[in-house]
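User: Let's play a game. I give you a shape written as tokens, and you guess the letters that built it. Ready? Here's round one.
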């Protein structure tokens, strides 16, 4: 593939026969999805051949002030008309080239647009790309060619502006397939593809809409491009389209719309652009995001069995509720039953009995539960919601999740939500409270051990060991067993070897409490405790007495 691609992209002109054979070979290889990606990585992009007739609807702007392909206007530096009218004919004379410093991506976009529009205007746009054998075919509907990425990006954007529905859909599909890297996504943005795609969301053809949404979904993976998509006003047409897509055939469309919305309305994403912020505020002012039908659609998605969609729907609701509280509309949308559905996922229920539950399923379920717990925690801040919520039911569901096998990083919001539910029920959350005990055993202790093990900062490690010692010293039921089951013995032994004085002292305290249970003796000795403790005793450091006490507890 690299050698064939070099024939089509090299500066040295090969014979037409060689180029034709190389192109046909690559097109044949591109029928395989993996080979298609390899070809695009070599700088070639698949572009549909739509026929010369389709380009007849192309209407270039013959007289307009110069602008970049993405719509950015070039500043006019001179407004004084020239003596013989040359500045009116050659608009470039009004631009001070010293002030125009274009990035490489913008330069490539200008070059590509200029070349492709010129070919379209003279009617020669597919003469070089096609071949005689192609013209003999009875139909050109599904024919494609390969172009260098600069020309391909510009060609695809040009096709988006035509009137042929089939051509538009195929161009959008090609944009989706070609958006495999940040470089290509930014290239499409600079070429002006975003504006066309957003306008085409309201196209009457279902085929065009599906292809356009797929392209926007792939492009929005880039944070930079995602901001541009939002600035083009994509929220309103996407929300309207989501409200309409209730049929079974539109499941994939709904999934892609939710993907795009989740990237734009991400609670963790900082608004770094004033333009994006104003766009979000405009939509909020128009009531687009708090529309009852839209909120009901999101709640219905929470009730589905797809954890990925549940995660994104909960995240979108979190963003909306944080920026514009709409508690009454959420209650009327039955948000409570939606959250209950997330907390009652099949994979979460089966983990207690099935030891072979897919790890990926647990990851996905954990992400959904975390997002839903975060949303529930925020909803509980409002009195109106607290009056309608079934606190006991949610408490039982979250307690079961806390002791499940979902990854630890997804349990922090579950624990926070449980603590808030306990506080709202006027419970005394001391160390002996069942909820507090479970939070300690299933979230706090595993998290502290993970911090001790994985932290590169000695201060963070020391703070985690000291906190762990405090919990153990309070005598929380089964706390020593939780430390041992999470592999804490081996982690604490590593602290004895390279931790700070305070961390070593705290580790010895924890290990001493663990040594009170004979079941832990074998693990402590296997972790290499005896030689390390003897070394500490012989060193006569401040903590040598603690080391000696621990050593005496072990069967040595």
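Assistant: Ready! My guess for every position:
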């Amino acid at each position: 593939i690299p050698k064939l691609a070099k024939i089509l992209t090299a500066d040295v002109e090969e014979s037409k026969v060689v180029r034709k054979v190389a192109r046909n070979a690559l097109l044949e290889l591109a029928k395989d999805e993996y080979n298609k990606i390899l070809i695009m990585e070599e700088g070639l992009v698949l572009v549909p051949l739509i026929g010369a007739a389709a380009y007849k609807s192309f209407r270039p702007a013959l007289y307009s002030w110069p602008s970049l392909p993405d719509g950015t206007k070039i500043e006019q530096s001179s407004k004084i008309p020239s003596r013989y009218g040359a500045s009116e004919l050659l608009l470039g004379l009004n631009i001070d080239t010293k002030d125009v410093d274009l990035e490489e991506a913008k330069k490539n976009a200008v070059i590509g647009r200029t070349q492709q529009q010129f070919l379209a205007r003279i009617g020669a746009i597919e003469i070089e790309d096609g071949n005689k054998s192609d013209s003999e075919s009875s139909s050109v509907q599904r024919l494609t060619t390969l172009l260098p990425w600069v020309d391909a990006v510009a060609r695809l954007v040009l096709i988006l502006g035509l009137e042929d529905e089939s051509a538009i859909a195929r161009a959008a599909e090609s944009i989706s397939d070609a958006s495999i890297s940040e470089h290509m996504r930014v290239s499409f943005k600079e070429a002006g593809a975003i504006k066309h795609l957003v306008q085409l969301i309201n196209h009457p053809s279902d085929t065009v809409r599906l292809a356009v949404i797929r392209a926007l979904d792939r492009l929005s993976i880039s944070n930079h491009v995602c901001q541009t998509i939002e600035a083009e006003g994509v929220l309103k047409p996407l929300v309207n389209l989501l409200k309409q897509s209730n049929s079974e055939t539109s499941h994939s469309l709904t999934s892609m719309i939710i993907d795009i919305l989740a990237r734009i309305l991400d609670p963790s994403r900082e608004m770094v652009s004033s333009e994006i912020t104003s766009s979000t505020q405009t939509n909020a002012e128009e009531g687009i995001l708090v529309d009852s039908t839209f909120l009901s659609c999101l709640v219905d998605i929470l009730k589905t069995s797809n954890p990925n969609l549940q995660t994104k729907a909960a995240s979108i609701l979190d963003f909306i509720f944080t920026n514009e509280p709409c508690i009454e509309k959420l209650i009327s949308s039955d948000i409570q039953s939606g959250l209950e559905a997330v907390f009652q996922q099949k994979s979460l229920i089966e983990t207690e009995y099935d030891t072979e539950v897919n790890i990926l399923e647990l990851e996905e379920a954990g992400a959904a539960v975390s997002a839903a717990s975060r949303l529930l925690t925020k909803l509980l801040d409002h009195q109106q919601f607290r009056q309608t919520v079934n606190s006991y039911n949610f408490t039982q569901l979250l307690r079961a999740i806390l002791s499940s096998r979902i990854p630890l990083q997804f349990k922090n919001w579950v624990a926070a939500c449980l603590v808030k539910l306990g506080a709202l029920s006027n419970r005394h959350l001391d160390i002996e409270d069942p909820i507090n005990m479970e939070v300690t055993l299933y979230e706090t202790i595993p998290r502290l051990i993970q911090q001790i093990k994985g932290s590169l900062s000695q201060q963070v490690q020391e703070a985690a060991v000291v906190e762990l010692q405090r919990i153990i010293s309070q005598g929380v039921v089964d706390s020593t067993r939780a430390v041992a089951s999470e592999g804490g013995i081996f982690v604490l032994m590593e602290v004895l070897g390279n931790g700070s004085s305070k961390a070593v002292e705290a580790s010895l305290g924890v290990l001493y409490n663990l040594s009170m249970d004979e079941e832990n003796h074998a693990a402590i000795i296997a972790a290499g405790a005896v030689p390390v403790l003897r070394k500490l005793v012989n060193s006569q450091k401040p903590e040598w007495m603690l080391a000696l006490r621990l050593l005496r507890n072990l069967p040595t």
